[in-house]
Structures are given as C-alpha cells and as structure tokens.
C-alpha cells in the first residue's frame, strides 16, 4: 500500500447517494483502537475497488464503500458506531 490517501471528505459523493445527511460530519468510532472522530478525518484510499477509509490512529479499515451500476456496498465492520447529527426530533 502506498502512503497516498485523501481525507474523509472524499466519501461525501459516494455516501451522499446513500445518506441524506452530510455523513462526513458524522463521528465514527474505530473498532480497532476506539478512536472517535469525524468521518472527514479518516484516511481514504481510492486505489482499490471503491473507497477504503482507514483510521488515522491505528490504520485499520473503518469503512468501505463500493458503487456498482445497480447499487452500493457499504461495509462498516471496522466501526463500533457512527454518530450522525440530525435536527432535533422534538
Ligand atoms: Zn483506530
């Protein structure tokens, strides 16, 4: 693997098709080391099928998204949780 990566804002387009909110401001928690931070702070590698987002703390894969003509594959197994800010429900 090379050290060439993009920041998590590269996920805005592909994930914007799936989520109606700006997912780059959501906070992910890495399943590898527990580091919590905005999706925009992940390191995104585009030299694979789709996009692979790795933790800046431990380099584990936090999420992957692959778009094919019929849909998208979203793999979140590398994150304990994804906290998505939303307008108040009240
Ligand atoms: Zn980590």
What report would you give on this structure?
The structure is a single chain. The chain is mainly β and 90 residues long. It has one domain (6-80). It is built from one helix and eight strands, in the order βαβββββββ. The chain has one helix spanning 12-16; strands at residues 6-7, 27-30, 36-38, 43-45, 51-54, 61-68, 71-75, 79-83. The strands form two sheets. It has a five-stranded antiparallel β-sheet with strand order 1-4-5-6-7, with no helix packed on it. The chain is globular and about 45 Å long. The mean pLDDT is 92. The structure holds zinc ion (ZN). Zinc ion is lined by residues 30, 32-33, 35, 55, 57-58, 60.
Ligand list: zinc ion
Task: Specify Rg, calculated over alpha carbons.
Answer: 13 Å
CA distance, first residue to last residue: 47 Å
Order of helices and strands: EHEEEEEEE
Strand content: 35-45%
- Please tell me the total number of domains: 1
Structural class: mainly beta
- Largest sheet data: 5 strands, antiparallel
Topology of this protein?
Blueprint: E1 6-7, H1 12-16, E2 27-30, E3 36-38, E4 43-45, E5 51-54, E6 61-68, E7 71-75, E8 79-83
This protein binds zinc ion.
Short note summarizing the structure:
The protein has one helix at 12-16, and strands spanning 6-7, 27-30, 36-38, 43-45, 51-54, 61-68, 71-75, 79-83. It has 90 residues and is mainly beta.
Keywords:
5-stranded antiparallel β-sheet; binds zinc ion; 3-stranded antiparallel β-sheet; mainly beta; Hydrogenase maturation nickel metallochaperone HypA; 90 residues; 8 strands; DUF6510
